[in-house]
Structures are given as C-alpha cells and as structure tokens.
Design a protein that fits this description.
CATH superfamily: NAD(P)-binding Rossmann-like Domain
Bound molecules: NADP nicotinamide-adenine-dinucleotide phosphate
Strand content: 5-15%
Number of domains: 1
CATH topology: Rossmann fold
Strand order of the largest sheet: 3-2-1-4-5-6-7
Structural class: alpha/beta
Distance between the termini: 36 Å
CATH class: Alpha Beta
Largest sheet: 7 strands, parallel
Helix content: 40-55%
C-alpha cells in the first residue's frame, strides 16, 4: 500500500474524477476526507470507502468559501491530526458563449475552480509546513492549460482561464513551498466520461444519446480512440501523491489519450 495511514483531502469527491480519486487513494491505505457540496453524495462515498475496510470522513463544504474550508480543514485535523495530501479536484464547467457571459457566471467559475484551489491549499499549508512535507495535486485541464484549436473549450472561456490559472498557481506554489518539502503538481485531463460531462452535454440541449455520440466523435479525434475514465486520472493523482514521485514538483502531467500532441 503506497499511502498507508497518510491523511488525504479530496475536493469534489462526491462523484466523477474526485470520487474515483477518493476510492483509489483509500485502496492504497489512505485515510480520506471526502469533500463536496451535498451531504448525501459524500456519505455514499464514505460508506464505499469504509466497505473497502478503510477510514473516511464526510466533509461538506463549498470550496469557494474560505471560512467553510477553514472549518473543514479543522475537522480533518481534529480527527486525524495531520494532512499529508491535498487533491484539488472540485471544478465546474458550465458552457456559456463569451458574448452572453454574465459577470456572475465568470466569477462563479473562478470562485470554484481557482479560488477553491487557493482556499484549500491555504487551509492545509500551516499543517504541511509544520510536518515539513506534503503533496498537493491540482486538477487543471487540457482546456486552457495545454491545447489550442477548435476543441480547446467551446463556450468555456471562463473555464479555460481558470485552468490556465491553476497551472500558473501550481508552478508558483511549487517554487515557494519546495523549501518546506511540499510538492505541488497538476494534471491536465482530456475528455473524461463523468457525470459532469454528461450534465454539460445535456445543458447544451444535446440529445439523450449525446454521450455515445461524443464517445464516437472522440474515436475520430483522440489517438487512443476513446473517452478517458475517471480511474485513469485517479491513478495519476496516486502517482503524484505518493513517494513514487518524490523528485517531481511544479509539473503538469497530461492525461488525454494523446489528444494534445497531434
Ligand atoms: P463532476 O462530475 O461534475 O464532479 C465534480 C464534483 O465537484 C461534483 O460533485 C460537484 O458538485 C463538486 N463541486 C462543484 N462545485 C463545488 C464546490 N464549490 N465545492 C465543493 N465541491 C464542488 O466533474 P468531473 O468531470 O469529475 O471533473 C472534476 C475535475 O476535473 C474538475 O476540476 C474539472 O474541471 C476537471 N476536468 C474534467 C474533465 C472531464 O472531461 N471530465 C476534463 C478536464 C478537467 P455538484 O454535483 O454539486 O456540482
């Protein structure tokens, strides 16, 4: 077990990539704080982890609210007394054409995707500094952080901007925190089949079978000819969270089936 008794916080862990990450890190022996917005969702993930014979706690908090996140971090410390790994996964990607985009829509995407990453990092930092080590893994995206071209981010200018921001934050934080033995890295997923991507397809007025159609479209544009799976991002988080990556900091790992190298 690569994370035996390590204490981990996973944000956005109620479903999708965050849930897969929470389950995978728990399988590797971590004690997992499962953070998301809705109690029912996180309770289910906690129950699944406990059914695997591992420890988990449900932490309901909105990552965009610094006070809620500080309280959440206190709950983790009260329970386990340390934090070794933070996976900032929570993110939203509601499509809106730029010409129609309202200031509130822009601000909300920034508040969750970028400020949420800052809020949780800030909340666990004193503990990681006192422990003289830690690993922070931020989920960016090929959108904004890697690719150019028509598939970059249709109607997602706000989202692309936040993910470019997550990459900049990751690199700068890695430089600042290396002196404390804290590593900070990012992952840029390509298209991953999650509840979030399904909801996005539906919100764009797509037919029911949109996901199947998107899957087929991906066969044409992704060298590995398919959507990615949440577990494939979770496995990359595991690598960056664990000592297997002990000399890696400030880096971006692209997990996109080869999409961005064409
Ligand atoms: P998802 O299925 O929508 O899951 C994201 C989870 O985060 C949801 O449970 C969501 O809750 C939660 N969340 C949203 N706002 C939150 C907040 N303010 N505080 C706490 N939790 C919050 O999304 P996903 O597809 O797994 O994506 C996860 C991450 O990967 C995101 O950062 C996304 O940008 C990134 N990513 C995804 C893809 C992809 O193709 N799926 C590609 C590149 C990058 P609600 O259900 O209430 O919204």
């Amino acid at each position: 077990m690569r994370l035996k008794d390590r204490v981990v916080v996973v944000t956005g862990a109620g479903r999708g990539i965050g849930k897969a990450t929470a389950l995978e890190l728990a399988r590797e022996g971590a004690k997992v704080a499962v953070n998301d917005l809705f109690q029912e969702m996180i309770d289910e993930v906690v129950a699944e982890i406990k059914a695997q014979g591992q420890q988990a706690i449900a932490i309901k908090a909105d990552v965009s609210q610094s006070e809620e996140v500080e309280q959440a971090a206190k709950l983790v410390l009260d329970r386990w007394g340390r934090v070794d790994i933070l996976a900032n996964v929570a993110g939203i990607y509601p499509p809106v054409p730029l010409v129609e985009m309202k200031e509130e829509q822009w601000d909300r995407v920034f508040a969750v995707n970028l400020k949420g990453t800052f809020n949780w990092t800030k909340a666990v930092l004193p503990t990681m500094i006192a422990q003289k080590g830690g690993s922070i893994v931020n989920i960016a995206s090929v959108a904004g952080a890697v690719i150019a071209g028509p598939w970059v981010a249709p109607d997602l200018c706000h989202y692309a901007a936040t993910k470019a921001g997550v990459l900049g934050f990751t690199r700068a934080a890695a430089m600042e925190l290396a002196q404390h033995g804290i590593r900070v890295n990012a992952i840029a997923p390509g298209g991953i089949e999650t509840e979030g991507t399904q909801a996005m397809a539906q919100s764009m007025g797509a037919p029911e079978e949109m996901m199947a159609e998107m899957g087929k479209a991906f066969e044409g544009v992704v060298p590995l000819k398919r959507f990615g799976r949440p577990i494939e991002i979770a496995k990359t988080v595991l690598f960056l969270a664990s000592d297997d990556s002990s000399y890696i900091t400030g880096q971006l790992i692209v997990v996109d089936g080869g999409f961005s190298v064409q």
